[in-house]
Design brief:
single chain; alpha/beta; 2 domains; 7-stranded mixed β-sheet; 13 strands; binds pyridoxal-5'-phosphate; binds (2S)-2-hydroxy-3-(4-hydroxyphenyl)propanoic acid; Aspartate/tyrosine/aromatic aminotransferase; L-tyrosine-2-oxoglutarate transaminase activity; aminotransferase
Amino acid sequence: QFRSLAQQTPDALLGLIRLFQEDHRPHKIDLGVGIFRDDQGLTPVLGAVKAAERILVEQQDSKSYLGPVGDSGFVDLTARLALGDDLATSPFLVRLQTPGGNGALRLAFELLAEASKDAVVWVGSPTWVNHFPLIASAGLESRSHRFYDPATLRIDFDGMMADLGSAKSGDVILLHGCCHNPSGATFSSSEWTELLALCQRQGLLPLIDFAYHGLGDGLEADAAPVRMFVENLPEAIVAYSCDKNFGMYRDRVGSLFVKATTHAETDAVRSQLFGTARAMWSMPPDHGAATCRIILSSPELRSVWQEELASMRERINGLRKAVANSLPQLSAVANQRGLFSLLPVSKDAVQLLREERAIYMAPDGRINIAGLSEANMPHFVQSISGYLS
Ligand code: PLP
Ligand code: TYF
């Protein structure tokens, strides 16, 4: 049977991990895969997470199945964290735990495909590499709209609005809640408001990929546009990840929130989601979600976590300023948010930087800002200055 199988193109980002490991040059810099790193280049387990895991080990008296919602305390607390108490507890909000933000996205696309086979998913260009296989796996069509302008390192908002003018009622718009991957480019609050008005005017359903909550401008500031969309539209979907803001990447911690308009529709959405999840992973993994629940429900651990989150955010935003100050062509980097920026460099330059300078970045010139440090900044600045277009 397997003779008929073709090779798939491997994920270039994940391929970089191995290439970097095999490089033994001492000055090598890993700006590849999107994980937070400290000034030593490490991604340690957060103190709040370690403490909560100890409590979990002590207190957990059973590992019996949790059921389709997953850890309901975790789901409730992340819904409140992302959406605020009122929206989170609406009877029209369906909430469930998923294996990471990736699982939430896959489930959301499956739901959308089941609801409307011919809905088009509008995706800004460029976007996170995994969005396309996720959309295609659900059998949905995606269409690109202008988003990022490499000439200004900012959002081409007029181009985006013009392209979305041809979206039809019932189409889906995939938005990054904050910390755009790969560009870091941010909407102003008036642009968010215009986008909301566009969704209202044209009957578009927003699917908000909210994978970096708190890593941009803070928990409240990052959530504000997401809440505005959920509050002011009849239907909205939020795919939430705790893998970055709690540093729990491999534990695959996420949840999905879907707002519907009537009791009957809410029930139908819930039953569809449970049915689809049953056919994919049956029930979500427990450990990471239980750990997050312990943190969010303990005032002490919650405040430890918020401080750790703030220090991750401040480190990233400090590095952004340092890059902008060292390289005038990259001054816009200071206004971007999150782990990523797209360097205006050619594909050839990306390869030369890797081969000759031991600087590893994604093929499109995406860098993980957190991979920079006080120690490697001079090598980075000196190496890329000759390649910036
Ligand atoms: N969405 C974006 C934009 C991401 O960068 C990631 C990162 O992995 C995810 C979703 C998925 O997150 P998770 O690791 O929780 O599946
Ligand atoms: O964009 C990143 O680097 C992270 C991690 O298939 C990631 O979101 C990258 C590729 C992938 C899954 C996760």
